[in-house]
Amino acid sequence: MNNDYLQMAQRVIDHITQLDYSAETQNMYRRCFSRFGDYLSEKSVDYCPEASKEWLSSISINKSDFNIYVAAINKLNDLFLYGEIHNFHYDPAKTIPGKLCPEFQRLLGEIRESISDKAEDTVQAHSWEIASILLSFQNHGIYSIADIHYEHLLDAFFGSKGKTYYSRCGFNQNLRLLLQFSYDKGLVPFGFTLFVNAMVSRKGYYWNCVSKEQIDELKSLQPDTALSIEEYLEVRNAVYQEHCQKSYSITAKNGVLRITNLFYLFMDMNDLRYYPRVGNIWLESLKQALKDVEYKHVRRVLSLLEKQFELVSFPLSSSFVFRDTMYKRLPEWCRPQVDSFLAMKKNEGWASSTLTMYRSSVCRFCLGIHELGIRSFHSLDAKTIKQFNLNDTHRTPEGKNAYNSRIRHFLEYLGETHAIDNPFLFLSLPSICATRETLVVTLTEEEQETLRRIFQNDDTAVSLREKAMLQLGLYMGIRGIDIVNLTIDNVDWERASIRVLQEKTGYEINLPMPSYVTNAIYRYIMKERPASSERSIFIREKAPFSRIGKGACLRALSTALPDRKVAGSGFHVTRKTYATNLLKNDVTAQNVAEALGHRGLDSVHKYLSLEESGMRQCCLSLSDKGLLMEGGFCHE
Predict the structure, then answer these.
(1) What are phi and psi of 515, to 5 degrees?
(2) I want to staple 487 with a disulfide (CB 3.0 to 4.6 A). Which of 76, 353, 424, 535 is the partner?
(3) Sign of torsion over alpha carbons 492, 493, 496, 501
(4) Contact 198, 157 (CB under 8 A)
(5) 144 plus 192 within the same structural domain
(6) Is 163 helix (H, G, I), strand (E, B) or coil?
(7) Does 345 share its domain with 411?
(8) How far apart are CA 146 and CA 567, in angstroms?
């Protein structure tokens, strides 16, 4: 053993000491060099790499110690051969990358190049993991990334289940990197880029809950209008973009992407084209796996896809009705006449609410007589109609009368179209209640004073939007439906007026706007209204920022007057209070009618009974009318 060997051994020890190798490892290096030095002395030879190989092959120690001895000798050989210590020693052909086929090696090299801006250790870690994944594919007889299918990805993913949590995270990250890079190169389909995220989100049920028999049925029944998987993406993107345009939150938009991506994967893995029935079958298969809230969210997104597929415009703020409606339960024998009657009413230009009432009434009638054994309108007689009327229960006589009046119109239509043998059967359905006059309910002086304090005080639970709506009703007499329909274009700020096209009557009125109402609307727009291109003045507080429903006006009144409990008195009470206050201030009935947008005085007359001072001036003598007190006397 010569001095050069001792000096090189000490340099190796100094090197690993600077690298903070553990004390145990440093001691192993010293024992290695000591035993190797003894070997050189016994053999009376000088150190050389060939001698180190002979010595390593002659010793017998446990595997872990032997690996450390090999590392120590390799560093010693580096100093002898190169004058410096290298960081690694391996046979490239025996490494995982070295075992890959040429195409996989080329792909791995391209991936390394794409992440070359990262730290060397990070690149090495990614390369080793991706090479391991590619080698697992290769061991299953796959030598091209284009030959990989979903079943291979599933095998690879589930094969990582035995790893530790952090090892699985690393595996998933690198599988995602491999698939995304391959897709960018045009080597794999788009669905591969969604696979890892779908699986790690613990939504594995998205692909395996529909039976093979149902899959085969969907393939055999798909219509000519069914969309390819690429065309489905256009529908998906349209739904997503609509959520973006309506300023939905990141969470809501990501929810749409997550569900539509899972659905895409389901179709792609099962080689399906898109049409609405595919979505319905898939949704039904998920029902047991999803919580109620999540199920409804998935159902809503699939319904939006269906509307987009059918090119039907549907506001995102609206709600889908998924219950089994009376119309859906109609028997086939009466459906043609019902459809033609409703189509006639629609052509007559009735409002949607009126058409809904007609549909509800007629469907209720048809289902009722069906339960009584009727299977054709020609079998209908007066006795059956009367029995239906007895069976048909309502909460109030007014409600029953409202339904019966529309059913009578339907019976008249059946008589005119000769669908029934007796054209006068509509007379068999009676009127349950006669028209009656009701007392006008207005806000009390105390309630009006409470509202005035709320309007003047900023420190209240009533929002600026609610204050503005309440003042439009209380100080201008505008109906709730007309308030929510107001747009920026209806307001003339210079002339301080509002032009309203009344929803109920169709008449347009131009009303002067008091300064305090103008200020209330202005404050809401400037301080509280969300930034939106929506033309409606009053919009939702959260996306989508669309026009609010008329129920918001009643909620505003309930917020301002929470203790007010008057049956049958909704937001319309503000309009009645406005008209009554005008009369109390000696405004003529004609002017009140104009302020309310009425074309006649009939509707105003009922407010006159609330104007006490005016009524006192119109008192009549009882004796003049022949009304005597008990005993025949009348005291004036």
Answers:
(1) -60, -40
(2) 535
(3) positive
(4) no
(5) yes
(6) coil
(7) yes
(8) 71
DSSP 8-class letter at 90: -
Query: Cβ distance 468 to 520 under 8 Å?
Result: yes
Q: What is the pLDDT of residues 169-224, one digit of tens each?
A: 889 999 999 999 999 999 999 999 999 988 887 666 677 788 899 999 999 888 88
Residues 6+ apart with CB under 8 A from 350: 358
Q: How many domains, in total, are found in the chain?
A: 5
List the 497-501 sheet strands across, edge first. Answer: 491-492, 497-501, 508-512
Residue carrying the six token digits 């029995």? 387
| Same-domain status, 273 and 414 | no
Say if CB 525 and CB 469 are below 8 A apart.
no
Evaluate whether 358 touches 403 at the Cβ level (below 8 Å): no
- The answer to whether 441 touches 576, Cβ cutoff 8 Å, is yes
- Distances in Å between the Cα of 385 and the Cα atoms of 308, 336, 542, 601 are 43, 20, 49, 40
574 neighbors 443 (Cβ within 8 angstroms): yes
Burial of residue 30 (CB within 10 Å: 0-12, 13-18, 19+) is middle
Residues 582 and 460 reside in one and the same domain: yes
CA distance 308 to 236: 9
Q: Is 103 helix (H, G, I), strand (E, B) or coil?
A: helix
Kindly list the distances between the CA atom of residue 318 and the CA atoms of 300, 548, 580, in Å, as whole numbers in the listed order. 11, 10, 36
pLDDT tens-place string over residues 529-556: 988 888 899 988 887 788 888 789 999 9
Contact 589, 610 (CB under 8 A): no
- Shared domain for 520 and 576, answered yes or no, is yes
Q: Cβ–Cβ contacts within 10 Å for residue 191, how many?
A: 20
Q: Indicate the SS3 state at residue 296.
A: helix
Cis amide leading into 276 (omega within 30): no
Q: Where would I find the H helices in 145-207?
A: 150-159, 165-184, 191-200
Mean pLDDT value across the chain: 85
CATH number, domain of 381, equals: 1.10.150.130
Cβ partners under 8 Å of residue 151, min gap 6: none
Q: Are the C-beta atoms of 609 and 440 separated by less than 8 Å? A: yes
Asked, for residue 128, whether it belongs to a domain, the answer is yes
Residue 444: which of 556, 586, 565 has the closest Cα?
565
Q: Could you tell me if 375 and 418 lie in one domain? A: yes
Domain range for residue 473? 445-614
Looking at per-residue pLDDT, the higher value among 46 and 611 belongs to 46
Widest pairwise Cα distance in the chain:
156
Between CA 314 and CA 239 the distance in angstroms is 11
Which among 260, 309, 303 has a CA at the least distance from the CA of 280? 303
Residue with tokens 């791995």: 108
Residue 409 corresponds to which tokens in the numbers above?
């119109």
Whether residues 133 and 233 fall in one domain: no
Burial of 497 (0-12, 13-18, 19+ CB in 10 A): middle
- CA atoms of 483 and 547, how far apart (whole Å): 11
- Torsion angle in degrees (nearest 10) through CA of 287, 292, 298, 303: 90
CATH of the domain at 553: 1.10.443.10
Which of 89, 110, 134 is the last residue in one of the domains?
A: 89
DSSP state of 536: B
On whether the CB atoms of residues 481 and 550 are closer than 8 A, the answer is yes
For the stretch 86-114, pLDDT in tens is 766 655 555 677 788 999 999 999 999 99
